[in-house]
Amino acid sequence: MPALRSTPRVPAVPAPWIRTRLRAAPAAACALALLVALTAALAAAFPRAVDRYEDAGLAHAVERATPGRTTLWVAAPAPDGASSVQELEQSLRRDALGARNRKILAAVRAPLSVDPAQSTYGVRTFEELEAPDAWLPRPYGLPARVFLATQARLGEHSRLHAGRLPRATGRVTATTAAVEGAVTTETAKALHVQVGRVLHVPAAGRPALTVRITGIVAPRTPDGAYWSADSLLRSPTLKPVPGGGTDPLRYWLGTVLLPPDAAPALLGTRGSPQRYWRFAPDAAALHGRDIAALKSSVASLESGPALREVRSAVDPNADADTDLDTVLTTYDGLRSGVSPLVAVAAFGTGTVAAVILAMAGGLAADRRRSELALLRARGASLRGMAGRLLAETAVVALPAGALGLLAAVRAVPGGRLLPALAAALAVTLVACAALPARAAAAHRVVRVHSGRQDVTARRPSRRRTVAELTVLAGAAAAVETLRRQGGDGGQLVSVAPVLVAVIAALVLVRLYPWPLRGLARPAGRLRGVVGPLSLARAGRSSASAVLPLLALLTALTTAAFGGSVLAGVRETRDHAALLAVGADARVEAQTTTVLPAGLADRVRRVPGVRSLAEVSISYQATPADSPASVPVAGVGPADYAALTARTGLGALPASALRAPAASGAVLPALASPAVARTYGTRPFPVRLDDGSTVTVRIALVRERTPAVPGDRFLVVDRGALTPEAARPAALLLTGDHIDGAALRRTAGGTAGVQLRSEVRAGYVDSPLQSGAEDVYTAAVLAGAGYAVLALLLSLLRAAPERTALLARLRTMGLTRAQARRLLILESVPQAVLATAGGALTAWAAVRLLAPGIDLTAIALAANPSAGPPAALHTDALSLVIPALAVLAVAVGVAAAQAWWTGRRGAVRELRVGDAR
To answer: What range does the domain containing 128 cover?
Structure first.
């Protein structure tokens, strides 16, 4: 019988590893993708947001400066070496100037960018030309004077108001006797110019040059560099005669615009014609990151290689001048003061995010500990296992990182793409490497069962001890270096909170077992099972708690430091505004020396006004035997004492200023330290502005006082002054929400009104300030969110074990209330450790950085002298609120877990626990 032929078996194709693992745990894959996408989006958005507000700040600085400061002027006299008059004339014509304009543009080096629409060139008289025509105004009996200019593209930058644009008839030369001209509407109004009027300007060795006005033009963009780089092109001025004393004679000075082809006619005048090229910077094309290169480009044009190129192309006597370098330097100073503060938030939040990604990888490795241990026991190589885990994670993390980058680019337009790409890529790589690295470290040695990891029972290995000591020594050395160098510590200033958090985390993790061991024995003698069991459970937490604690400490430190910075900025602006105004609002006489009668009663009825203090001020009061004047303020002692108490500016008792009842008695006075040092405590007479004299004796000394700004003042009882000297010149108002519009209507046009809130808002002058504050606030909030996430991941890691434990204890008679108290008390030691350690670490970081941090740059950039230097100090709310929030979250999560476990059956949880 023939043998039966067996059908060959087709080997089964195993399902791919990655697909199998992703299908087995879709929720974990989605959570990882969400975490990576969110973190990549935040990381990519940060450099773009910084670029955006820095660019906006630079553009604001350039635009806020007048075009006369930011425009680059290149000027050259008419060439001396011309072989003939025709060659000299040709050098002033439009074509020759345009060719040289292109050569100068070629010498402007990137990143400096020129705005061609507002740039121009032409010829103008260097000297003023007297116009003796009788129809021109002579306010002081002096004839008007004019400049003649032939500026290119006049028609593009103006609209005809009357007449037509001037034209050059025929070929204009140095001997041409008559030309056409135009003036702006402001010049025409001030100098009484009409279409058809004729000006006669002096000529050299021949009859005067006749300029017939054919048009009056209105500038299209009067504030642009074309018209405002030389303001006389647009607006005439009454110029004082040099050497005329305090009240000099003045004459009108304006500009008459000739057609570009009429430039050779200026050679026949006495005005010394000069060629010029003006280049306006393109503010929108300037970038804050290029500030050093921008300053170098400007310096090269003013006195460097670029100037040599300009002189070679234009004229050996050409010169370049601009104040753009000063504007850039001022901006760079503000940027240098803001950047370290933002870097602190960036480093702190970045560290917390990196720790969170590492914790997510650790959580995944712990969840799959049995699976990976079994693979290693069955012969899987460490490299092969890590590679498969890397590929598995990359399939999820790479698309999530790309999605986060795209979201950041769409959400934050502007800014560079490369730094954002690098930040998102760094986040993705950390996320990809976290799980393989943690798994490789945990399964380096093949074993199925691992020993206990109790924090109170397991002794750290020598390798871990050496590593921790090395990190601790490096961090401590860096902190000591920073403490010695202060604000000159460079990047150490930015990483200081992280370094302090590293030190605190390593120290606290080592110290944490000691109180638990000390409390275990007394707790064992307590009645009930919850207390001893909670301490035992707290001691059985994982010994490798450095990462969660580091995340919490860094986030708390960054949040507290950021809160202290923002609180310091807010307090500095508020104090500077208070020094400027003296109260919540100030009404002061402007057109007269005193306020109208009855104004105080009307102001009291303005919505928001709580109290009012009337003040009379003699600004030119003169003490006897002293040439220097001292402002003397007369106040009502009771109202003024209440005002100083509310504002905190030189608080004083009312009795200290109250004048004696006797007529002519010596008045007690409040003085500034400078005045007190000059006059001491002896009585001395003071002559007031109305001519009366009072005798005062300095009884109190205060650095500041609300009535008079500055550091020189005297304050006396207004009731002891003459009726004329006691008339109020200012009203100081207090109130939470004073209606500024109603106050201005009540004050009318005779008094000026200052609101403290408006003055405070005026200190936010640059997008660099507001942008830095927004980015800092966002970074602190992100760090706080990551801190909560770190706490949740830490609790989630132990959640299955806790759930199984509660199920077992429930079968032994543990009530739901006892289960809830057990989980809450178990989480309290770790939460208290993070809370106390975070507050202490934040306090140490603020104290460490305070000497090297000056908040004046970000708080008072518009007016740094408005208040005293703004120093960083600890803010109690910023220390307490984040720490208490961590404690509340920890207790809340434990309570929620106990409630949820109580709702589920115990059988299923016991099976889960047995499986583990």
So the answer is: 66-322
